[in-house]
Amino acid sequence: MEPRNPDDLEALREASDILGIDALLSDHERATRDRVRAFVDDEIRPHIAGWFDRAHFPVELARGFGELGVLGMTLKGYGCPGRSNVEYGLAALELEAGDSGLRTFVSVQGSLAMGSIHRWGSEEQKQEWLPRMATGEVIGAFGLTEPTAGSDPSSMTTSARRDGDDWILTGAKRWIGLATIAQLVVVWARTDDGVRGFIVPTDAPGFEASVLEPKGSMRASIQTELHFDDVRLPASALLPGASGLRGPFSALNEARYGIVWGALGAGRDSYEVALRHALRRQQFGVPLASFQLTQQKLVNMVVELQKGALLALQIGRAKDAGTLTPPQVSLGKLNNVREAIAIAREARTILGGDGVLLENSPIRHAANLESVRTYEGTDEVHTLILGQHLTGIGAFR
């Protein structure tokens, strides 16, 4: 058998799909995947190492994502694409094969901000914001996590009190994506009626957003800290349909779903870079891929990528059928992110010293996935969600 050609990426991908998972997709799903893949190849791959190195988020990509149809991708009406959850998952996979930070932009905009307005907003709010957010003209953020309340949002201290017909918002949020470039933030706050959501314009007096830096992860994206110093909001800022933590949790579940797929993209890209390097690189007079230890590493990567893809597809089909449960999403997020990090780290070892150069993606993916592992529920939180499901005992306190 002849060594595989490292320049024939399609043949390498076909060989890596040992279980024939590609055949489980419809022609329409494959077309969506290929369209997003081409966008990533043309618009992200040539630039991402420099963006990451300079800690630069290319805000001009927002309009490109809108034209691509990945902002609010599963939402229907109001100018939103209205595509299936499996299509969105495939898009998330391809976007994160480019970079976790850029896939996160799509998630914050579409799943968290747009999703909250679409599900809980008034008709006027939907008409005002969603069409322009779907095109990338307007950028939105999502404010839930606080400096002292990450995994425990029930401990949030940000509050909103009534003052006549208005609301007065006070408090702080931390690790909020996009807020310094956004026109609005969906903010969750305590009120006398429980936790409620508000659409907060970023030019409102008393609103302040600052970038959290320097970072060793997610450098091609923006994370911020927010402060609300008696921000006055009209009654129309309230999301009328959301009351209690069910509102933000429903949005988080949407974002977690995207991560189930997205992490596979980072893992797959790391594997492909390592495989092509191993086929090209000569060591002791033969390709690095000739050695048993190298083959073992590559095989272990593909085993986990194939298992993770079946898991993501099963979860996506369940979501499209309306049967998806939170423990299923937790299982997917916990497994696929954990395995993707292991793949990225192992891929780096195959690259040797060159693996620390940003021209090779595994080191960047490994760094980014440390953030992905933390946000939208840490490994520990998802473990406890699954533990509670299995035992009927909540071990959070």
UniProtKB/TrEMBL annotation:
It catalyses: glutaryl-CoA + oxidized [electron-transfer flavoprotein] + 2 H(+) = (2E)-butenoyl-CoA + reduced [electron-transfer flavoprotein] + CO2. Residues 141-231 form the Acyl-CoA oxidase/dehydrogenase middle domain. Its cofactor is FAD. Its EC number is 1.3.8.6. Residues 244-390 form the Acyl-CoA dehydrogenase/oxidase C-terminal domain. It comes from the Bacteria. Pathway: Amino-acid metabolism; lysine degradation; Amino-acid metabolism; tryptophan metabolism. Keywords: FAD, Flavoprotein, Oxidoreductase, Transit peptide. It is an enzyme of class 1 (oxidoreductase). Residues 26-137 form the Acyl-CoA dehydrogenase/oxidase N-terminal domain. Belongs to the acyl-CoA dehydrogenase family. This is glutaryl-CoA dehydrogenase (ETF). It comes from Microbacterium gallinarum.
